[in-house]
UniProtKB/TrEMBL annotation, chain A:
Key words of the record: ATP-binding, Kinase, Nucleotide-binding, Transferase
InterPro entries (UniProt xref): PyrdxlKinase (IPR004625), Ribokinase-like (IPR029056)
SUPFAM superfamilies recorded: Ribokinase-like
Protein family: Belongs to the pyridoxine kinase family.
A Gene Ontology BP annotation from the UniProt entry: pyridoxal 5'-phosphate salvage
A single Gene Ontology CC term: cytosol
Protein name: pyridoxal kinase
Stored Gene3D superfamilies: 3.40.1190.20
Assigned EC number: 2.7.1.35
UniProtKB/TrEMBL annotation, chain B:
Subunit record text: Homodimer.
EC number: 2.7.1.35
NCBIfam families, sorted: pyridox_kin (TIGR00687)
Phylogenetic placement of the source organism: Eukaryota, Metazoa, Chordata, Craniata, Vertebrata
Name of this protein: Pyridoxal kinase
PANTHER family listed in its UniProt record: PYRIDOXAL KINASE
Function of the molecule: Catalyzes the phosphorylation of the dietary vitamin B6 vitamers pyridoxal (PL), pyridoxine (PN) and pyridoxamine (PM) to form pyridoxal 5'-phosphate (PLP), pyridoxine 5'-phosphate (PNP) and pyridoxamine 5'-phosphate (PMP), respectively. PLP is the active form of vitamin B6, and acts as a cofactor for over 140 different enzymatic reactions.
Amino acid sequence: MECRVLSIQSHVVRGYVGNKSATFPLQVLGFEVDSINSVQFSNHTGYAHWKGQVLTAEELNVLYEGIKLNQVNRYDYILTGYSRDSSFLETVVDIIQELKKANPSLVYVCDPVMGDHGAMYVPEYLLPVYRDKVVPLSSSTQLIIKTVVLTSTDLPSKRGDQFLVALGSQNIVKADGTKTSQKICMDMPKVDAVFVGTGDLFAAMLLAWTHHHPKDLKAACEKTASVMHHVIRRTMTYANEMAGPGKRPSPAQLELRMVQSKADIENPAVVLEARVL
Amino acid sequence: MECRVLSIQSHVVRGYVGNKSASFPLQVLGFEVDSINSVQFSNHTGYSHWKGQVLTADELHVLYEGIKLNKVHQYDYVLTGYTRDTSFLEMVVDIIQELKRANPNLVYVCDPVLGDHGSMYVPQNLYPVYKNKVVPVADIITPNQFEAELLTGKNITTEKDAVEVMDLLHAMGPDTVVITSSDLPSRLGDRFLVSLGSQRKVRPDGSRTTQRVRMEVHKVDAVFVGTGDLFAAMLLAWTHHYPDDLKMACEKTFSVMHHVIQRTISYAHELAGPGRRPSPPQLELRMVQSKADIEDPAIFLKSFFCPPINTSTRRALVLKRISPRRQSACDRITRDLCLVSGAPACSIHPKVI
């Protein structure tokens, strides 16, 4: 498999968020991953302390220039996630547009990180950038996004309140040219902990499994959700062990057990089923 | 296995050098890798163009401060490689000294990158920093012949010289030294180069012993970048699994290198086309494709203990009048030579060394 991903995300020295969360699993699955680190922090911002440096839009452009000058700016996928800077995001958009011209088949996988539980946790001025510039970036002629996954909702699950509902929808063009869409629904077990980096892992794994199942969102989502399940379970067990009985694990203890989950990443046992709606 | 490595090396957006070369293989082998990127460049500096930003010594310190404030600065290993900045290198030394206080068992694996083939390719003012500050706190170093000579002030023209140089390096600090490549003539001809290793240990009774090994390594007709970084990372991994057996650790490490390089050169030639020299992008290590070899390297080469077989065995081999015990020793050596060269057993005649 010869598949090259450009991932533009954060780097943390310690732990698994952003590029640290996305790169290893994709490499383990055989993808070539080129990574631009949008920041370099000691650790994610859920710890008591965090320190580091951010990349400016200008510096991002300089890195891309280097890739372009060497004529190696050909990618099959782009992956982006958490961003706090609108000019940085706009430069990302420009780069992606150029890369799509170099390879019209390029697929842009975007986690439009803005907030959760009713509130934004990025600056408000990012919303119009996502809505008007980032999200509409898709294949050449149509302003239609091919695949959408609502990773988590408050919709009541048929399996009770220990589960949350995720939904997915994929536009498919059939062999005869007609358009259709596959919509799926998944009930995912809730976990009583706050994880960081799981969204980044999810987007990376969705990239991988939609690559292997390009017309079968059900299969892609089942694999993706199953990887998440295995990694989270392993992480929870270890975190609780580290914290000791009756104590809530710390952010450091809750770091994803990524390298320990290699086998699950390579070949996830499917433990969650998606229903086709 | 719960083992945490702090790797302070370059990051390239595309390709495999520095942290890009070291992290994936270590993670695949189950190590937790914390990585501080000393630079972020588009690609390595062997391409026609390269662009990016460097981390200052202050910025390095800030990152370390974050780790320390969260009290997560316990590391089992530190790994460093190519650096161009003396103040950065000095900050690295300060950090390592502090980390060693936090964990006295910490092992510092250092590739003392200074130059090769007779000339320095880092600024000259790095040399005293390596010699006086870095190497003394290192536990494992992976110099090439030029770097080993430069650090000790002694030239290597024979295996005996190499052993003396490695002893001088031990005296400077590191208990494990691997001279990754040398110009010494190989026993297997000029398509091979010689690498040597030396590991100093203290026995339970307090006495000192040194294990020395010699590897005959296939030469490859190409310039690779990032192989030294991969080597140091894999030596870290395999000395971790074989802390008292440098021979085994080296066999695994050199074997991984062999598999990755062979895969890379095949692919590079395929991309370049017949009769054309592959370009730097085409020569990027086939790292993700080599995952299985990294996880479980098939031993491709064998190493020899130094000094080699003794005089009486040598004479016995020549005269072919040997006892069964010596016969098995000779068979083993013959088999070892065959494994290295790939030639069938009957065509190898152990040469008088």
